[in-house]
């Protein structure tokens, strides 16, 4: 479920909700917070994999030529 905050400016980019959740997941993960690793290193270890896949699918749906007729998925 996307997290929306009242004090933030609205992000009208595609996949904004998933992008925000993915970013929050990485930055709040123990791999980054306790171990002091970079978020890119934690991604290679497989953390937040479900959100990474969802974000990838959302971005890929923008390039899908079939979605021009059906519309972009409502992530």
UniProtKB/TrEMBL annotation:
InterPro entries: Cyt_c_oxidase_assmbl_Pet191 (IPR018793). The keyword Disulfide bond applies. PROSITE patterns: CHCH. Coiled coil: none annotated. It comes from the Eukaryota. GO terms for biological process: mitochondrial respiratory chain complex IV assembly. The keyword Disulfide bond applies. Transmembrane segments: none annotated. GO terms for cellular component: mitochondrion. It holds the Pfam family Pet191_N. Keywords: Disulfide bond. Belongs to the PET191 family. Involved in an early step of the mitochondrial complex IV assembly process. This is Cytochrome c oxidase assembly factor 5. The lineage of its organism: Eukaryota, Metazoa, Chordata, Craniata, Vertebrata.
């Amino acid at each position: 479920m996307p997290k929306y905050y009242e004090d933030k400016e609205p992000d009208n980019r595609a996949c904004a909700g998933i992008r925000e959740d993915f970013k929050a997941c990485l930055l709040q993960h123990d791999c980054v917070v306790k171990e002091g690793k970079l978020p890119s290193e934690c991604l290679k270890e497989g953390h937040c994999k479900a959100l990474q896949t969802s974000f990838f699918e959302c971005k890929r749906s923008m390039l899908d030529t079939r979605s021009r007729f059906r519309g972009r998925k409502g992530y």
